[in-house]
Amino acid sequence: MRELASANLWDGIGCGGSQKCEIATIEAMRQLTGDPRWDYEGVDVGDFLLEQFRVGDHVEALDGQRWCQGRILEAPKEDLQKDQKPTWKIQCNWSSKEFLSEHIRPVTAETDGLQRLLEAFVDPSLQRVLERLSGLKLQAVQASDGRRSMAVQVKIENVREAQLLRDQVLSGELESVVNEVLSRHSTLKCFPWEIGLDKTAFFELYERTLMSLSDLTAHQQEKLEELESVENPVIHLSAPAGAGKTFVAVMHVLKRLEATGDGERRHLVLYVAPNKALLFHFLRWFMVFASTKTVRWRQHLARIVVMCQPYQKCMKPTITETRIQLDPVEASSEEFLLVVMDEAHHMFCSQTDLAQQEMLQKIPAQQKLLLSDVSQSDGSQKDLTFDRFFPDRYQVALSQVVRSTQRIVAGARAFQLSAADAVKSSSLGTDGPPVKSFIFEVEGKEGNASREEIMMHYVKYTMDAFWHLMQTFSTLSFDRRLSLLVPDERFREDFQRLLDLELQKEFPHRRFQLVTCEESLSYLPSHMMAVNAEVYAGESIVLDTIENAKGLEQLIVISIGLDGGQDGDRLTRARLYQGITRAQLVALVVNEFVEDGLLAFLSKVKLKGAQRFQPKAAFAEIRTDAAAALVASPPKKVSAEAPPLAVSAARPVPEEVLPIPATARTTGGSAAETSKELPPRRSSVWDTESNALGAGARAVAGRGLRFDPMESMLEAYQRAVTLMELELIRDAARSLKEAEDVNFYQFNQEHVLSKTAPPDGIVLRGVRAPPQVAQSLLRDRRGRRFRSSVHVTREIVQMDAQRLRSGAVGTTQGAEVMADGRLAVSVDVTHGSFVAGDGLFIDSIAVGGPEEIDLTGSISYKEFLSPKPCIAQWYCCHWWGESLDSFVSSCQTHAQLRRRGSPGSAGGYWVAAFAMRQHELREELGPDLKESPFYDALRLADGILLTVDSEEVFRRTWCHYELYAGSDLKHLDVVCNGAMLSRTGLPGESMVAKQLREKGFDWELLLKGLTMNCEASRATVLADRRMFAAIFDQEGTLKVDETVCSTFALLAWPQAVKRGLVSTQLIETVASDVNREALELSLAHLQEFQDPGMLQLAQSLPPNLTKLKLGLEGCHELTDQGVKALANRWGTKLKHLYLDFVGCGKLTDASLSVLAQNLPPTLTDLELHMAGCVLVGPPGMEHLKKHWPKSVKVFRASFKATKLNRNFMTLQDLEDYWRES
Hints:
alpha/beta; 7-stranded parallel beta sheet; 7-stranded antiparallel beta sheet; globular; ATP-binding
């Protein structure tokens, strides 16, 4: 049963896949239950089919490893013995060969369908799709057995094209597209064929192809020519991981050897590396490339010797039938033509033995080539000793990563040591899948877990990573394509013992074998082996230390336990960088959660939704100086007695070193207001869904991270603006026009969008322009993007197709010709925002609109104003037709009333127009609004501030949704013309003062909130209308309307009581909100609130309330009749009840009695305050005891200044009173 998930059930052997599943289930049930009813009898289907295949029939039969069409010459006898298998004699149609076969099948509809499938494959429509998708060409051919077959021609000219095809195959995209096209093909309607790609067979071809691509990239070629032109005896080639340092060195070595004569017999080249695995890696690449370039490659190989630590002897490579062998050779005093020192940052650093460094420096050579990446060293640039030993070296720098995907490069950027290198580096790779993490906490051990227990956790989550890979690449063999990299040899030994057992248990059919890097790379590439020998019948997976993987690469890499927490920041950083950058396509990280570790930041990260990956934006997520700052800081103290792998104990971090705080400290406020957990940062690089984190991670989130490479990126919820910034915005708006009526839309079009566009301009891709316009643009290159001295600018204008916007305006920087002949035009935005699809005018000449726009690098207006984070305390709800003057005035009023301080204080007002990146608004919102940063900011805020300048705000769709989504927030403040309504009282404000403050609010305007309606609401942008139509439909339009309208009704209720305007509309609006489960309302000290008002309030209670909180303190005219009306209407579903009748002097024991009689059986929490109700006494408490619900677990009450004259702080206090009385 355990094999069913990953076994190939349709392998052509025995029963079909479904039957195998049935048999496995029956066998499992027999073993589990022992019930004889699960017994079955196996019958060979051949017994029934002997009569089906007669002499002369046309069939397909298996001849060895392939199926052939032919005619039956002889059929098996009908009286076969039990141990005899039926065998047919077949004559092949194509070759006339006669052979015996036990496996035959009819040539029927299946074969006919296959022929039709082949016809469909060569259909021009599918040909065009495949060629456009991945450069594939199909051609029908005649196979040697007479059947029609299909040949696939793959056009691969460079590494990127090979990687694109690789990703399309592995992701299943190619299969999906092909099957989608085939499903619509007319000839296949009766044959539901589905095409599957053999990923293992593909990768065997891919790996051979990749190793035979001997052409350098343009960047590599440029750097190779540079170093070949230099006569300096020492050349230093530095590059980030994956840029091809070793590849360039191989080409350089080959060229130097090619330039020597055939008569030269001595060793000319010495290649030096830290370990044998890298020696084998270099030799494999040299053999493959040299064999494609020259027939003398074996002679050249004989002139190479190699050396590794401890750098004491040279070795000569020898090729056997299947392996590369290294044999010691006598040391020679002759001068080498070239010495290549790979991973030189490890050889020449402060941690390396000085004697070894001096020995390496003194090796006689005409030229030395040093290959290094400072980010892979254990220290920093100042720890390297290049300047001491090679002060006059010539420096050459590669900056373009070729090996790894864009996401791997971006993920490793967090641990890249040189900020300058990180900024300069780029990647030619494909996007690739996200870097996936499996960060876990060791459960229930509180820091005292044994090494064995922790190792078992590592194995468990590594197996989770295996299953993830199995599901992602279902038919891919991992043989020599997967590496597991661990921190040290002790870890490897302990881990391998447990992992071996688990692999055998989980995947017995896969026959995994764990080998070292050295063992894996010592074998020749399969196509260069002299014999067709299987090195290992199963799948070899590399398990080795990160030290032994230096300079190597693998398709898939799992970095395990590299963030150990006990090794110091420098070594940990280097290990993580090395581990991630070893991967070509897929990088995974498995690690226990170390609270002050370098991967702890992943506890606060979440993968962005299904959005188009943008490499520039991904790179911008990471602080380029994060790793360098970490290394430069004082080393972390490590206890010498701390056991390896022990879970780190919690320790405080000084406040001054905390990064962006984990709670809303920057904006002040009370403790209650700053206790919300911040939403995770959204990353386009890291997939943290498989993390298994608990209390330890939450504790770190509460106090901040010691190392946070993403802290420079302002999340949307951190882009609130202060009151001072709002005043600067108002001043900027006033500068646009003399009149004080610039609204949000105008300010955005005329100011915000030009200030927040990418600093290097946007790129409009796919523009079709008349020849004369295209030529002029191609000549007019300027700025950073195009290097030229020409500075001609041309106006480019776009009008929105719906004529709802004033259009976009910019000036061109120049253009480039794309592969399809259209243009990519670089533009400086001066007004508005360009959109894909709409037509353009360049110098008043109409041109085709762009298909795609590159907006990478755009920012929000908040980020333009200040890089300082400010967390949302108040979510501002408004409409874009409101003037900036009116809006800012409302915020000033709000700040003064809420006592948020004078101008300049850190008041966090979250305004979508300034917080969201307007050029990339759709990307920021994403496909699911509840997963967007906009929603994070709304839910994180203490409350909503609704600014009302007209009744139009109650008609806007965005406002409708915001009020619905934030309806359960603690605060809702509404400001209009200097007056403010609030759901609760302000800090230090009495309820009487609240009533006086709200008295001046425009009552008629407020009542418009009672009529808000989803279907009648308005949104200017068509995409918004469609989005909210879907959201409201999903949520339920009636539910949304009832929630929003009842919220306004409750907000208006105190003033309605004060003005005597509690209407039927007000009552019905609240009562009809059937989805409302909590109602909180304070009518304290409203002398106008009497028994009739209590009846109206009781009539308004929604039917499904579970929580009711009423503040009726000081309502002196309230009597027992009012309390009775309330108690009779609050329903039977209440769980939490809070009633404040303090000072209601007309209430008697009858009120307490009626309350007791109507307490619902579902009640769990009761808080009752009747202090000052002088007529209440022991008889009322007896009634309470008589009707007391057993479900109540929490009780608080105040009865001071009554006949009881005591308070009850707990339920136990009440029970003690009853017992005493």
